[in-house]
Amino acid sequence: MTADYGSLAIDTDRLLRHLAELGDIGAIPGTTGCARLALTDEDKAGRDLVLTWMRDLGLDIRIDGIGNVVATMPGEGDLAPVMTGSHIDTVATGGKYDGNLGVLAGLEVIETVIRAGVELPRPLAVAFFTDEEGARFAPDMLGSLVYAGGMALEGALGIEDSDGAVVGDELERIGYRGTAPTPGPTPHAYVELHIEQGPVLEDAGIGIGAVEGVQGISWTELTLRGQSCHAGTTPMRMRRDPGLVAARICAFVNDLALEFGGAQVGTVGAMTFRPNLVNVVPSEVTMTVDLRNTDEVTLRAVEARFAAYVSDVAEREGVDVERRILARFEPVDFDDRVIESVERNARDLGYSTRRMPSGAGHDAQMLSRICPTGMVFVPSVNGISHNVTEYTEPSDIEAGANVLLRTMLELATTEF
Amino acid sequence: MTADYGSLAIDTDRLLRHLAELGDIGAIPGTTGCARLALTDEDKAGRDLVLTWMRDLGLDIRIDGIGNVVATMPGEGDLAPVMTGSHIDTVATGGKYDGNLGVLAGLEVIETVIRAGVELPRPLAVAFFTDEEGARFAPDMLGSLVYAGGMALEGALGIEDSDGAVVGDELERIGYRGTAPTPGPTPHAYVELHIEQGPVLEDAGIGIGAVEGVQGISWTELTLRGQSCHAGTTPMRMRRDPGLVAARICAFVNDLALEFGGAQVGTVGAMTFRPNLVNVVPSEVTMTVDLRNTDEVTLRAVEARFAAYVSDVAEREGVDVERRILARFEPVDFDDRVIESVERNARDLGYSTRRMPSGAGHDAQMLSRICPTGMVFVPSVNGISHNVTEYTEPSDIEAGANVLLRTMLELATTEF
């Protein structure tokens, strides 16, 4: 199938230039990073720039009620499009690749097809979804969630940021409260290119990740309350030390993840001691626990072991525990046919590939609710993301964009 | 020996009244606590009140260059006095017993002796020492340190608080930069009454602690540096997690203290994660470790085991360690003859007693450098101190003050 378009390749210089130009908007002085929080003036400027490029290609542009922008190159018939996309909002100290690469590589794929004069049986579409990062408005992946019908538009428009600004008002203010309906039209298939945001590909020397799905996420906040007392005058046996309980839980989370192995990860990222003084046994410790696995059954087993240990160790040390679920998402499995297409096209182009889960959330997981979906990962240098030092090599960007091109062409001529 | 003065007893109501009146100065509204940081206006007001009471008894009052106040009731001959005392400065949110009890009970002992018309071969003296808490000017126990010759007056006068105020200037300002020389005259013996500030006596149902000495203290701050990374996308084996290392050290400190047993205590009171986010493996963790023992050889063995463990676990996890010694004091042993006197007199009065170390520092440990020294402990309710809820039962205050009275009388007629 791909043989029909065997000579097509994206223009790497043009794609890199687009990435640089978009990265200049909201650039953080003295760094290569940028800040374009969702629905801010910087986000508007980034949106306007990408829209200019979409218009230059003569694409059909639709903006829906939550500000998602979908640009479509018509196909031969009136069929559902093969869609790609991602987001162009960033975290407060972000890089210029996370999200941006998926949108601009999608645009590059369409420009390549248009310039080659290739006509396809199905339309190709590229989207950018509103507020993927969730760094300003919770939850994250808001735009794609509404697109896929996972949240009603009215609810999404009423969400406030920490300063009380409202999504609907901010969309009006920047001119992106569109009229296209939500949920959006169902694509024929969806495939998204994204940087890995982790170290696995780089560490293994692999060029292309064929993403099999997104890990399930379980976030818990524990507040441990004991008895503050004098570190010098209180015998060990008379203590109720929540810091000790927190430490044992932190070590247990690590040991538990290693015991289960595979895709299981466990992290204690935040811990706060009160009163946090050298000579006082703490009265209260707050900590977070982040557990993830690609398999829901395994993740539940890990959660159960974790919960039992917390109860045991807290009771043993005479410490009270308050638990709060911060987030819980089941794992998402992508479509085998899309995963295979990514893998096959990467190999045809001579790249090494690995099937892998995504540890982070992406718009693709929302689209997977409504159509066959997959993702293409390219390496992140040192595994760093959500940081101004985020970087992906031009050769990897070229590889990823060409795999996206081939996969979209194949999906456009494949019936499921 | 005590038989000679067998009928003497302190006036509990008078002592409680004095404690209440002194506690009213700097009282913290809505609590039973008070705030009289060293050399503040509140400290001056407290000093002035206690001086009034000293003058009312016709005592010989000497104020030295660091603001220590020593009030003496003359004896029959020109001999060194039996001294008692403590401090009347408090922490920012302190109680009305810590320090205050030792000074006012000493004054009560002298008033009792004077009113009974008893003449002793040696003078009795009661002192309050400047800046015992160290809550405003470091180091703590500053006044008694200078009295005992452990620091030159000039150095002490130049110490600044966190706002740049200088000890010498503040002494001048409140009118307590005296002319009596430092180091001060060597007492015949020194015995100090203090609340335990821990839960041991209350827990064991013991009335009087005969303090054998002060624990040695070893304080270390560790800064652990690893690699910040994404909690979802970074496999366990590729992490360098300083939070995990901190947790293992915290648990080890507890296990180590339990393994050594006896007087050994170990505490991780402070821990700070950076960046302290639920989904980010921390880049850096700072923590403190407080190790104490009454025996220097054992304390050194514990420190060695601790240091070796820190190196091992940090290397195993690929985390860098920076160590900073925050404090290191060797244990202090009080004088057997004073300890025995406290114990004997408590038993003669019908109180249960226990020999015990002090986990906290006290002026007595400075005086022990120059004369036979001991301390009397009375229970702290719930072991709480340095807190507005600090409390000791009137019956325990009465017991402690009468033991102090008997012990001072005995020491006044004992040659060493």
What quaternary form is this?
A: homodimer
Binned, the helix content of chain A reads 25-40%
CATH architecture label name of the largest domain in chain A: 3-Layer(aba) Sandwich
| Total number of helices of chain A | 12
Helix-strand topology string of chain A:
HHEEEHEHHHEHEEEHEEEEHEEHEHEH
Low-confidence stretches of chain A: none
Q: Provide mean pLDDT of chain A, rounded.
A: 95
Q: Could you name the CATH homologous superfamily of the largest domain in chain A?
A: Zn peptidases
State the shape of chain A: elongated
Task: Give a description of the structure.
The structure is a homodimer of 416-residue chains. Chain A has 2 domains: 291 residues, 3-Layer(aba) Sandwich (Aminopeptidase); 114 residues, Alpha-Beta Plaits (2-Layer Sandwich). Helix content of chain A is 35%, strand content 21%. In chain A, strands 1, 2, 3, 4, 5, 6, 14, 15 and 16 form a 9-stranded mixed sheet that branches. In chain A, strands 7, 9, 10, 12 and 13 form a 5-stranded antiparallel sheet that branches. In chain A, strands 8-11 form a two-stranded antiparallel ribbon. In chain A, strand 3, helix 3 and strand 4 form a beta-alpha-beta unit. In chain A, helix 8 packs antiparallel against helix 9. Chain A is elongated and about 80 Å long. Chain A starts with 11 loop residues before the first helix and ends with a helix. The mean pLDDT of chain A is 95. At the A-B interface, strand 7, strand 8, helix 8, strand 9 and strand 10 of A face strand 7, strand 8, helix 8, strand 9 and strand 10 of B.
